[in-house]
Amino acid sequence: MFSPNSDFEVALAFDVLNACRRAGVKLATAESCTGGLVAGALTAIPGSSAVVERGFVTYSNAAKEELLAVSPALLRAFGAVSEPVAKAMAEGALQRSHADLAVAITGVAGPDGGTPEKPVGLVHFALARKLRPTLALYRIFPGDRAAVRRQAVDQALTMVLDAVV
Question: Which H/E stretch holds residue 28?
Answer without folding.
Answer: strand 27-31
